[in-house]
Amino acid sequence: MNTNRIQNRIDKEGIYIKGIVVKKEYGAKSPPWLTTNFKYDGKTYKSNLSITDSNEFEKIELTDSVLIKFIKEHPKMNRTEKLLNK
User: Fold this and answer.
1) pTM of structure
2) Is residue 35 within 8 Å of 81, Cβ to Cβ?
3) Could you tell me which residues come within 8 angstroms of residue 18 by beta carbon, excluding any fewer than 6 positions away?
4) C-beta neighbour count of 15 within 10 angstroms
5) Which among 18, 27, 32, 68 is least buried, having the fewest CB atoms inside 10 angstroms?
6) What digits encode the pLDDT tens for the residues 46-78?
7) Where would I find the H helices in 1-80?
């Protein structure tokens, strides 16, 4: 599996699905990030999203909705694109 090739396909052909925030975490040397979940084809997958603005991070709540982009052949390789609501 060529990771770069799959990332390029996600960029060009990816489909969007709604997910939810399930965890908020602080990194010691990295920006805070969210762990998000989405369901596809009867399975649950995880994704992550770094939030560089700490004020914005504090406003995010568990169960907030997010938009996730992936390709059907490799749902484990995905990207949380953005928050849909706060």
Assistant:
1) 0.88
2) no
3) 38, 65, 66, 67, 68, 84
4) 12
5) 27
6) 999 999 898 999 999 999 999 999 999 999 999
7) 3-13, 54-59
